[in-house]
Automatic annotation (TrEMBL):
Residues bound to UDP-N-acetyl-alpha-D-glucosamine: 93, 122-126, 305, 327
GO molecular function: UDP-N-acetylglucosamine 1-carboxyvinyltransferase activity
Name of the protein: UDP-N-acetylglucosamine 1-carboxyvinyltransferase
NCBIfam families in the record: murA, PRK09369.1
Reactions catalysed according to its record: phosphoenolpyruvate + UDP-N-acetyl-alpha-D-glucosamine = UDP-N-acetyl-3-O-(1-carboxyvinyl)-alpha-D-glucosamine + phosphate
Entry EC no(s): 2.5.1.7
Chief localisation class: cytoplasm
Keywords of this entry: Cell cycle, Cell division, Cell shape, Cell wall biogenesis/degradation, Cytoplasm, Peptidoglycan synthesis, Pyruvate, Transferase
Keyword Membrane: no
Binding-site residues, phosphoenolpyruvate: 22-23
Active site: 117 (proton donor)
Length: 429
């Protein structure tokens, strides 16, 4: 078993170039199935979820090749099947996009239930509602479901809550439907806009992405093209937070600062200095931070995916902070692990109450999901002694090369294998 070893580090300094967005990439890769010609995608990160998509691509005939220069060449012209293996579908979250992307061409898609990070409840009722309104029939089985539609027809769809996944999926299904679709109460996330921009470049007619009302006029044909995925605002945010853990100065390059408004405002509020240019952000910190309250929300609110690294950062802020999770009220698996390091945090209902400034001590901890992994990595930087993080497969779902990047900033982080260390285990039990 591999684990990440983190040892208390001094202030971090340096520059990191931010990879393409995981959540956008997963949508664009599936969306490529809608095209009738080859598509080139630039900036797709080499993460675990992408490798699963590659296997799905092999199964269904979607040709995916990475060029020596890094871009992905996708050829959807020879897709021969719309059956997505249940095991592969449940190996990551965004497999549901294959439904929206394949339904118009094939009339029937079979797919397993989505996996991804486990926050107790991640329903897909809004995806199903949208597909049904567009004219599809959905039948559920034990570990898969079938979506069928002889002809998708445009519809007015009101989402009962703001959901980025269902907004993107409905957009994918509507792009080749007959007539006009209107999405109300749509998610405004940059990943929704990125998917719409990509589809429009292929010839789709989508207006309003980035607002809560999206209009889609169906088209019978989509061409090919070249498109660059947006940078990962969530990874960029986590690196800026790393600068605050012990003081230091970190620059993130290849970012779109406008995507990070709520995160940047909160970093300033707790006492970090930021220098922002068109494509980079530098965070400076003396290590002295003020306590605060955050409440997660859908974009442009404070991202739930930044809640965990921000919680680690607040362990350094003098006083009492409160983190309230409104998107996934039970997304607090990382708190139990932080407590193993000695953190003074209590969860009550959908809030975590943090008393900052309590010294941490290294221990074995488990990353239950991708952002919990980031949180534990940051916490390990301030803990005395050695922190060992298992569950690194979760971290690999989001990060291309987390360990190298943290090392390049001066963090004492390394990948270890348990069999090498077995004889030294007793001191950590
Ligand atoms: C692959 C991907 O892009 N994952 C992101 C996506 O997940 P995902 O697309 O799964 O999350 P959604 O935006 O759909 O979820 C937002 C909220 O809507 C609820 N909901 C969603 C769909 C539905 O059918 N019914 C329903 O009730 C969810 O429980 C949640 O409370 O957005 C989340 C919220 O920003 C992020 O944490 C994930 O990183
Ligand atoms: C929740 C996340 O991912 P997914 O939706 O892919 O599980 C995340 O990236 O934090």
């Amino acid at each position: 078993m591999d684990y990440i070893q983190v040892q208390g580090s001094g202030p971090l300094h340096g520059t990191v170039s931010i990879q393409g967005s995981k959540n956008s990439s997963l949508a664009l890769l599936a969306a490529s199935c809608l095209a009738d010609a080859t598509v080139t995608l630039e900036g797709i990160p080499d993460i675990y979820d992408f490798r699963v998509i590659r296997q799905i691509g092999k199964d269904i005939g979607l040709q995916i090749d990475r060029m020596p220069t890094g871009e992905m060449l996708l050829d959807p012209r020879y897709i021969h099947s719309a059956v997505i293996d249940p095991g592969k579908a449940s190996a990551y979250r965004a497999s549901y996009y294959f439904v929206g992307a394949l339904l118009a061409k094939f009339g029937k898609v079979t797919v397993g239930f989505p996996g991804g990070d486990d926050f107790v409840s991640r329903p897909i009722d809004q995806h199903i509602k949208a597909l049904r309104l567009l004219g599809a029939e959905v039948t559920f089985f034990n570990d898969y479901y079938i979506v069928e539609a002889k002809q998708l027809r445009g519809a007015d769809i009101y989402f009962d809550m703001i959901t980025s996944g269902a907004t993107i999926n409905a957009m994918l299904a509507a792009v080749r439907a007959e007539g006009r679709t209107r999405l109300y109460n749509a998610a405004m996330d940059p990943e929704v806009v990125d998917t719409a921009n990509f589809l429009n470049q292929l010839g789709a007619k989508i207006v309003g992405a980035g607002t809560d009302h999206i209009r889609i006029d169906g088209v019978p044909f989509l061409g090919g093209g070249t498109y660059t995925v947006i940078p990962d605002r969530l990874i960029a945010g986590a690196f800026l937070m790393a600068a605050g853990m012990k003081g230091g100065s970190i620059t993130v390059n290849n970012v779109i600062p406008e995507h990070m408004g709520s995160c940047l405002a909160k970093l300033r509020e707790i006492g970090m200095d930021l220098e922002i240019t068109d494509q980079s952000i530098t965070a400076h910190s003396t290590g002295k931070l003020r306590a605060t309250r955050i409440r997660t929300g859908m974009y442009p609110g404070f991202a739930t995916d930044l809640q965990q690294p921000f919680t680690a950062l607040l362990l350094q802020a003098q006083g009492k902070s409160i983190v309230t999770e409104r998107v996934y009220p039970k997304r607090f698996n990382h708190i139990q692990q932080l407590k193993r390091l000695g953190a003074d945090v209590e969860v009550r209902k959908e809030s975590a109450f943090i008393r900052g400034g309590t010294p941490l001590k290294g221990n074995w901890v488990h990353a239950t999901d991708v952002r919990a992994g980031t949180c534990l990595l940051l916490a390990g930087l301030i803990a005395e002694g050695v922190t060992r993080i298992t569950g690194i497969e979760h971290i690999e779902r989001g990060y291309e090369n987390a360990i190298q990047l943290f090392r390049s900033l001066g963090a004492n982080v390394s990948l270890q294998s348990l069999h090498v260390e077995a004889e030294n285990m007793s001191q950590f039990q």
